[in-house]
Amino acid sequence: MLEKNSRVETSTSTDSNGHTTTTSTTYYDYRLDCPSGRPTAMTSTTDAGSKDQQLQVVYDPAGRIDPEPARGTDATAAWVPGSLIAAAIAVGAGRELFGRNNRLR
User: Fold this and answer.
1) What distance lies between CA 73 and its chain's CA centroid?
2) If both were cysteines, with which of 35, 41, 70, 101 could 56 make a disulfide (CB 3.0 to 4.6 Å apart)?
3) Which residues contact 1 (CB under 8 A, 6 or more apart)?
């Protein structure tokens, strides 16, 4: 990434009972230098790194969806899908065994 700026936006709302709520959200604006030339900018509520650091970005080439930082760059990226596949196999095996036991009776 070429540049990173942060800003805080605050909004205040009042419900029908007169209770006021104030919410602050931090936005991170990134200026990017992607090899393909796109995207050139991204805004996120996630702090995805610092200037001059490589940043993986997912984006829609058609531009219908805003770019966002890629997820799954940590250790959970490998074990979450693997555990879901293992659970699906276990459920399938259990159904097959349960189905056979009912057919044998």
Assistant:
1) 11
2) 70
3) 30, 31, 32, 33, 49, 51, 52, 53, 54, 55
- What b/e sequence results for 30-39 when a residue is b if at least 16 CB atoms lie within 10 Å of its CB, and e otherwise? bebeeeeeeb
Q: Which residue has the tokens 């990226």?
A: 77
Which tokens belong to 23?
């919410």
CB of 42 closer than 8 Å to CB of 30: yes
The owner of tokens 């349960």 is 98
Note the pLDDT tens digit of each residue in 49-103. Answer: 888 888 888 888 888 888 998 876 554 455 556 666 777 787 777 777 777 655 5
Residue 23: strand pairing partners: 11
